[in-house]
Amino acid sequence: MSTAKTVEAILNKEDKAIEHIIQQNKDLFQELSNLKNEMKEMNDEKEEIERDNDSLNKSRTIMQGYLKNIYEMNKIENKLKKINHTMFRDLFIIYYITIFFSIMFNVLILNIEKHSIQYLSYFVFTVILIVKGISFYKYKKNNDKAICKLNEELLKTQKATDLVNDLFDNM
What is the pTM of this model? Predict the structure, then answer.
């Protein structure tokens, strides 16, 4: 017998057990259908939560990079401030030394009557000024190199921070 005839034969019988089995089958089929729909909704919700989680992890990583860049920029700026402060202090020391030597030179010139000693003191004063000028030039040149290097690091960090800002804007 074919399946359709078997189903028709079962449906035509007046047996209560068969009706109960058919009703249970319908109920189970309905419950299965409901569970499949519920499972599909849960899978969709799970995928949405995973997307949100990935987005939050990405945001967290970006924030960490951003804060690290800001920290690095702050360290570099503090180094620059320290170098500038040191240079400023050293300039004042050199200024006061130059004034002191100028006063000493003038006192020596005015109180010395021999021309040879006056020329010698003038020569010593000039040599001291030249040596001080050269040493300050070397000192400034080294500091300028350090400042340039720190400025380059600062620019790189600022560019990285700008990239992070762009990522934030695109989220």
Answer: 0.55
